[in-house]
Design goal:
6 helices, globular
Length: about 600
């Protein structure tokens, strides 16, 4: 294992023309917290780089994530409405979401506000499927999704519009030399939308539900001598969503500041200070303001024992604060805080055709006490192009501030300070093949989650009651040759409540996607997307299977200008993601981009 700096990793995945090797074998940092290629990591991973984002002409992050293996999604209406992702059949809050390495999910609900994350502010996305609690602690039961904010080079701009009176505009500028780097990117989006709910929903109102968002991201890096570097990254996103009972104003901010230094030729040390805040202000007959703040500190040390062995040691501390105010009554529902401290160790080593990963972490939580997680992975290469991987691990999900402290509504749906964390045990077997411009893998996984938190009993209070078992199989194929790119995947899973054998809601047993792209005559890019999602159960209804087709194209006009277009739901299919809520009809988007 050659030593590879994170700075080098970020440079490799910058938005330039990608070779076949870079498409099939990108560099990532989320799986082990150190830079390595996708081919070397033992975890099942997916990387969505800026070039793919631009070639899709997608309008939001859901358009890309829903096509990935192991990912289910639900949305309560159109753009700006609540979005949930489910990774490998686990719950929506079993995904650890990082923005530039900073935990970004709400401390009160445990969910991340995907609908308020502008795609225009994303440089790349790394998805790690399977538990990663030994490296990151709570939440990484189903996996980790890390968002890296934009890194504009030179001047960039984009304007466009489409169906539902949708308009988007963005502009950015960045650069650097001699170890210095800087960048800023600002974006604005608005849409009149459509009626999010239908007569089967709650508080149905047939008016259009629009959305407006303003966002900005900045980055700065500078050398402090020959062996030390400081880096700052920040994201600000301010959105206003209409729904049938009123509006929700959502403010999200993250700040990543880190100091990285090389103490010896074989010892890299990084100190990271993170800050994340979310504010949800609901204006309706039940007006409220919910504010959460998260302060974190992590000290990571990567010791390269040999060219093939690396030990990662770290300490982390986190403080979450949540405040819920009833604006109508002028009272504070609750104002609470929790703390978490942890130490972790992770070893990666290789000997000939074999590779092993070992991880151990101990967390100390201010409410439920201590919890220890572990992970083991082993792989062996054979017949030159093949690799077999076996892994097992444990993970946990700490109760949220709502689940611990919310007094409920007249006593109903109250929190419980005696809750235990949700715990999981998982195992996985993978067979991977890669040769030249093609790669394929089959990943068989099993995850059992205990002490799931549910609202039960006479007053529907938060208690540890449920257990779930989730066996599954992922099949993935990718190819990049000449002017063609192909990505196909299929997921077969069975997410079930272990006590009742009932399906877990809004997660399909079968889903798949096919994406085919081609570059013509060096100037025209085309892309077709096919998505199939099988039948699912919702709280009060069964949801039919559906198939969607999307098309996108970009024409290089020269002088840095690109004309782009996208048609979603080409066949204008009716489909349902959540019972009682509508989904978009056929939509068209046209725009022009400058780089």
């Amino acid at each position: 294992m050659k030593k590879l700096s994170v700075a080098a990793a970020l440079a490799v995945v910058s938005p330039v023309a990608m070779s076949a090797d870079m498409v099939l074998n990108p560099i990532l940092v989320t799986a082990t917290r150190t830079a390595e290629t996708a081919d070397e990591t033992l975890a099942p991973v997916t990387v969505i780089n800026r070039e793919e984002i631009e070639q899709s002409s997608a309008g939001n992050v859901t358009d890309l994530l829903r096509l990935q293996p192991g990912v289910d999604m639900s949305q309560n209406g159109g753009t700006g409405s609540s979005v949930n992702f489910y990774l490998r059949g686990t719950e929506s809050d079993h995904i650890l979401v990082l923005v530039d390495g900073v935990r970004a999910s709400s401390a009160t609900t445990g969910a991340f506000t995907w609908q308020n994350l502008p795609l225009s502010q994303i440089e790349r996305i790394e998805i790690v499927r399977g538990p990663r609690a030994t490296l990151y602690g709570s939440d990484a039961v189903g996996g980790v999704i890390q968002i890296f904010t934009r890194e504009p080079e030179g001047a960039t701009a984009r304007v466009g519009g489409g169906t539902y009176d949708t308009y988007r505009a963005e502009a950015g500028f960045g650069g650097g030399e001699g170890g210095w780097s800087y960048g800023i990117n600002a974006a604005y989006e608005e849409t009149e939308g459509f009626s999010s709910s239908n007569p089967d929903g709650f508080d149905y109102d047939p008016d259009d539900d629009g959305y407006e968002n303003r966002s900005v991201s900045v980055r700065f890096g500078a050398p402090l001598g020959e062996q030390t570097r400081v880096q700052l990254r920040a994201l600000h996103s301010d959105g206003e969503s209409e729904y049938d009972r009123g509006t929700i104003n959502t403010l999200n901010q993250t700040l990543d500041s880190r100091l990285a230094t090389t103490l010896t030729p074989n010892w890299d040390s990084t100190l990271q200070l993170g800050y994340a805040t979310e504010q949800l202000e609901t204006e309706s007959s039940d007006s409220s303001t919910i504010q959460t703040r998260r302060q974190s500190a992590e000290w990571q040390n990567d010791v390269f024992l040999t060219d093939d062995d690396v030990m990662t040691l770290g300490l982390s501390a986190r403080r979450d604060v949540g405040k819920n105010e009833d604006d109508g009554a002028g009272t504070t529902v609750f104002n609470e805080a929790i703390k978490n401290y942890a130490a972790f160790a992770h070893y990666t080593g290789r000997s000939g055709p074999m590779k092993v990963e070992l991880g151990l972490r101990h967390d100390r939580h201010s409410e439920f006490g201590s919890h220890t997680t572990g992970q083991l992975a082993w792989s062996r290469r054979f017949a030159r192009d093949w690799r077999f991987v076996a892994s097992a691990g444990t993970a946990f999900k700490a109760p949220t501030l709502n689940q611990l402290f919310h007094p409920g509504f007249g006593g109903f749906f109250a929190g419980n300070p005696d809750l235990k964390p949700e715990k999981s045990q998982s195992a996985e077997l993978s067979l991977r093949w890669r040769t030249g411009s093609q790669s394929a893998s089959a990943n068989a996984f099993y995850n059992r989650v205990e002490d799931l938190i549910a609202y039960s009993g006479p007053m529907s209070s938060a208690v540890n009651v449920d257990e779930a078992r989730i066996p599954g199989l992922e099949l993935i194929y990718k190819a990049a040759w000449r002017q063609w790119n192909v990505a196909a995947n299929a997921t077969f899973q069975r997410p079930r409540n272990e006590a009742t054998d009932e399906p877990l809601i809004r997660r399909a047993d079968t889903k798949g996607a096919l994406v085919i792209g081609r570059r013509w005559l060096g100037q025209l890019n085309t892309r077709g997307e096919l998505e199939y999602v099988g039948e699912r159960e919702d709280r009060s209804a069964s949801l039919d299977a559906y198939t969607l087709v999307n098309l996108a194209t970009q024409w290089d006009m020269g002088a840095g200008f690109t004309l782009e277009g996208r048609i979603e739901n080409v066949a204008d299919r009716d489909y349902t993601l959540v019972d009682g809520y509508n989904t978009p009809e056929r939509t068209v988007y046209l725009g022009i981009r400058y780089q």
